[in-house]
Each structure stands twice: as C-alpha cells, then as structure tokens.
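fwd from M.: "can u put these together and see what the complex looks like"

so here's what she sent:
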Amino acid sequence: MKVTVLGSQGAIPKVGLFSTSLILNVCNSYVLIDCCEGVQHQLRKNKIKLSKIEIILISHAHGDHYFGLIGLISTLSLLKRDKKLTVFCPLSVFKIIQAHLKFSKMNLSYELDLKVLNNNNKINIFNNNHFSIEAFPLKHSIYTNGFLIKEKEKKRKLILQKALDNNIDKIYFNKLTKRENVINNNGIKINYLDVTKEGDKAKAFAYCSDTAYFDELINNIKGVDLLYCETTFLKKDKDKATLTLHSTTIDAATLAKKGNVKRLLIGHFSSRYDDYNDFITEVATIFKNVIISEEGKKIEV
Amino acid sequence: MKVTVLGSQGAIPKVGLFSTSLILNVCNSYVLIDCCEGVQHQLRKNKIKLSKIEIILISHAHGDHYFGLIGLISTLSLLKRDKKLTVFCPLSVFKIIQAHLKFSKMNLSYELDLKVLNNNNKINIFNNNHFSIEAFPLKHSIYTNGFLIKEKEKKRKLILQKALDNNIDKIYFNKLTKRENVINNNGIKINYLDVTKEGDKAKAFAYCSDTAYFDELINNIKGVDLLYCETTFLKKDKDKATLTLHSTTIDAATLAKKGNVKRLLIGHFSSRYDDYNDFITEVATIFKNVIISEEGKKIEV
C-alpha cells in the first residue's frame, strides 16, 4: 500500500500548490481520495496513469475537495477510457456532476458509476478479494465522510524446501499459501501451517478531512498503519478551528495517539501559515511519528 | 491593451500546460476570457491579482473553457471580495454554476452577476467610458460565442506650449483633450484642434475559440489589432478539424488575412502535436504576423 500526496493545502491554495487530494495504490488498484482543482495535472506530474484509477472517494462538497473531479471525468473520456469508473460521493456532488454532464452534453466513453453516500454510521462501501473500503461520518460544516481502506489478509509464504521435503506437487503450492491443506504425492494430508509461514501484514489507511475532533472518531481509525488527519490550524488558532469545524495540530495528534495508529500524515494547511515546521513541532508534543504533506511525497504504508 | 496567455492547449492539456484562457488588461480593467481548470493558479503564477478581474467571458460549455470558473468564483469569495463580478456565459454554464452554488451551499461574499448569452447575431454586451465588448456566434459543435473588445476613442494630447500661448486657464486642459472647445482668459473661443494633437490609437482585440472557418466571421473581426484564433489542427488533419468544427492553421491564417487584422495569436493546440514550429510555418504561408500562445506570454496589443 502506497500513498502519493497530490495536494497539501486548504481551501485557498498557495501559488504553485494544490488543495487536498491523495492517491492510494492498494494491491495494484488506484484509489483517488478527494479531487482538488487541477488534480489531473498533479496525477500526470507524478507520473500516475489516469487510466489506472478505479475508484474515487469524495469526502464532501467543499470545492477544494471536488472541483477537479469533473475535469478528470472529462479527460478520461477524451482519452477513450472504456473500463468503469466508480465514484463515491455525497448527494450534492452527485447532483453537480450530473449538471455538468447534462448541460455540457458530455457523452462519456465509459461507464461512470456515481454512488451516493448518505450513511450516518460507519458502513462498508466496497469489497474485492484484496481490500475493502469503509466510509464513516466526520464532523464538519456540511455532510462529510472519512474513509478506511484495509487490505485483506494476505497470502502466506511457501517454505519451498519444506514443501519439497513433504513431496507436495507444485500445482498445490498456491493453495497452501491460501491457507488450504493439500494431499501430497504419497496420499498424505499436509497442513498448510507446516510448509508456509506468515505472509506480509495486511495494512490499513484512514483518511479524515475535514473534521473537528470528536471521541467517536477514534474507533473508526483504531490501529491503522497510516492515518491522514487534516490540521488546518495551529493550536493558537483553536478558535478558528472550532468555528469552522476543522482540526488543529493538537486535535490530530490526540486522535492519532488515542487511536494508537502507527503513523500520522497531516495536511490541509490554512494559507495563513508559511512555516510548516510549527505543525510538526506541535504534533510531536503529543504524537512523535508524524509526516507532513508535501506534494509528490510517496509514503509506503 | 495587453493580453496575457494563461493556457495554450486544447481539450487534453499536456503535462504542466493548461487549456485555453487569456486575460486582457484594457484601460486598467481586467477581462478574463475562458476559464480552463487551474486558471486561478495560472493567474497567480503570472502575478495577476484575482481581485482585479471585473468581467469574465465564457465562450462555450466545453470543459477546457469553463472548468476553472467555479474555482475562481469560490476563491474570490474566500478572499472576501466585495465588488461585483460579471460573467457572460451560455445558459448551460449558467446552470452548471447555479448547481455548484446551490448544492455545495456556497454563500458568496460578493455579487455574482451571471449574464446569459443567447444571441444569434453580433450584439453589444458591455459598455463603459473606456471600452465595449461585443459577442458574436462562432460555428462549433455546441453554442459558442467569440468576443470583440474595443477601446473607445482616446483623449487627445494637449500641446502645452500652444495652450499657454493661447492664454488658456489650466482648469480647461482636460476639456480640450476631451474634444471640447473652451474660452480663454481673453474671452476668445479656442478650438481644441488648435491646441491638441491626436491621442493614442484606440485598440481592438478579437477572440475566436472554438470555431470552424466561415466567411461571415470576417466582418466581426475586421481590422482588429490582435486576433486570437484557435488552430487546434495542422492542415494535414483538416478532416479532423471539419469533423469536430475546429480551425486549422490555414483557416486561422485565412481569417486573419481576409479580415485584414494587424497580428494573429494562435493556440488551443491538439495534444497530438509536439512541435509548434509547424503551426507558425503553416500560418506564415498565408499570414506573416503570427504569434504562438505560450503560457505567461504578454502581448501589447
């Protein structure tokens, strides 16, 4: 699982910087989370093939999180995409995209599956053999979801010498890694545990933007390998965060600590700040393992 | 009058480049023509203050010409603009912007005056003391307008020594430059022509994107100091231009020549081309005074 940061800024991007978006490579599927204006430019700049995107998640209908969606939808069609694109978004964004398609008479080359999110609790929204996605409500000025992307239990690793010693035909090796017992060439049942070892750990990534801190959130992000949590404000601007239902450095650090996550990625910085070291310093007073959003940064989860 | 090119590309922008937009500084008013995705970034990169934009003209509802409009409208509000912004656009773009404002619950800090264009002939859409704007239909796959921005006749220049020799009080100098006759200190009527000389020439700029060539267009751009005409295709791709109702190099050059314009600015290049010298070469076989769109290029009209 790998995250690439496409935008680091809040609602008003600084010159040359972009609002919040990131893309997750999970088991070779690309999941794009939020689409700032210019996200298609950022994807190309970071050499991510637009055609590889399978799923887009839109947290809420504030422009810095969705203005780039229609441009990407349009460009994929101009590039003659033929495979389905699935977008999970609030009803408001659904209606806006429908308006673009209708009034600009856009005929897409591919199936656009716009799925409306209206959950008030954590729900599973996607599942395949390799990973799942859950959406959970955040606490913001309009309806907003966070997302939890979890890899499924990975294959075990074959201990080749043990498999050979046990006289197992190689056609059964794959079954063994999938936790199935097999019969060897001597007709004896072999337990997969005897010839395999634990595989790579299944990873989990959670995304929380935009939101005020609230205790119920902890359960939804508990123990993830990487938590993205917005830090629009430094702690001196707590009043602004409270007013606009955003998080401060302290809020994000508290969430990471109480959620017992491995690492914390922060971003969605207000344009009032120039020095992002202050963000690191403040978070680190509570939670040490913090990473700052910088455009183009790649993070192995 | 000065034009700054903000985007040079057609519908699919190349990495690091933007679709069609340009901004015109006319008598210290800023008129933005078409809004590609990321136009707010391009404006800032080119050090044009967003607050100075007074009028936006949208030619048609293809995404490469309007996807950046909502981002700019939103950012101006976040920056707490308080003066009116006037946008001229087709009904389709009007409805799309209305959908954004409604469904994302955007409350703007300023008056957004969205004016719908549905003219089928050339009409005047704006007038002030310094310049006028006319819209005229182009020939494209959806309803599209071109625009003609003309400075009004400029003040004459005072010949100071002659004014003094004629014993004219300096409080009348301004009147003289505005072509009014005055009475001098000896009670004698002075003709403004005797103490002033011709002022700067009033300039005109015409914008044609996107369009196929058609003869009736010539009258609408006749004699302008600078004509922007799209050249999506080289002449070898004439069939594609015909199919999609775009112009080739030859079409734009023919329009410039028949319209007897001073200079021609070309752009909106298809992403299939890498070498833009071919565009210059082909246009120059018919019309010599050609300028290529490069992002950030400033052209004194």
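replying to her w this: The mean pLDDT of chain B is 96.
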